[in-house]
Amino acid sequence: MWPKEEIPLQDKLFIRVHKQNINPKTGLPRPAAFKNTPTSGPSLSSDWERYTTPKKSRELLGKQYKKGTTDFKNPLFFFIVSVIVNDIYNLNCNQLIEHTPKYQNPEPIGNPNNRAHSSILGDKTDEEIRLKFVNISNWEINP
Amino acid sequence: MPETLQRKYLPGKPQRSFTEDTYSLFHRKFWEFDKKDYLIKYKKLTIRQSEDFVIYPVNKIEKQIRGLKFLFPFELVHILNEIEDSSNIIDLDKNWDDEGALQISFNTWEKATLFISNYSKWIYNNQNIIINEPDIAAVSDGSIDLTWSSEQARLLVNIKEAETTASYYGDYFTENNNIKGNIPINEINEFFAYWLKVFKV
Fold this sequence. Notes:
By secondary structure, chain A is α+β, with helices and mostly antiparallel strands. Chain A has helices spanning 54-61, 85-90, 127-136, and strands at residues 12-18, 43-48, 78-84, 96-99, 117-121, 138-141. The model of chain B is unreliable at 1-56 (pLDDT under 50). The interface between A and B is medium-sized, with 27 and 29 residues.
């Protein structure tokens, strides 16, 4: 079990971006990449840089099941952007960031433990926040 | 091409000087005929010249995409191409993002293309401005995003299957002069159209 910690404002969070959510013309993530996952859920998953790297964050996807299946995700279908915590708060869009480490013993197949796991809580159906997320994100692993 | 238009605007001898008004009148008339379903496929109109009168050719392109018929002025062919490229989003399987994404229905795609088609043609027809094509993208909740962006401004429009309005947000990368709200998909909102002109080619 890992304790919840306070994430400093200057720290980065890594967010996965599915290949379908990349604009092929601009090479930027699409606003659709910043919906909550799953869409009906309360938050967008991310990984805190203190306990992972973009490469490890991507590799961990290969240990996760695709939603509703027992098939593993293909990490190569995902790319990684980073956002700085303070930049998210500066959007003034009612988002809250929490460190939410995932730990179970024994570790379930398809739902791996992850000390870096963090949640960007708040509604993201609004066009404004999704559009603004595009411009505060930076590629860590790009297509 | 209708005879009345030929007689009026393709004169055999000089009648008046070519002016911007003449040009826009020509376009306006032509568009009126469009509304009466005069569909012209890749047809070049004759260029007639005289001492001081020039009529420019007006090309139109018609294309069937997924059973829908699109008719665009040739100047907006980039919009038509984007619509065609986007049609593959209705082929995406359920769970296309591995996170439980919903399928994009044909109706949602049709509404999105109608929205783009209406606004791009209206702005071209009424303001003589050609706007850039948006990025057309599937969203995990089954809706479609239309994104325009330039160095000056950005705009996101979201089209949902169950709604007759589109929700949008746009700004100039500052907190001032932003726009946000809902507009009917099947009608032209002139204020919104005015804002879209920011994304002219």
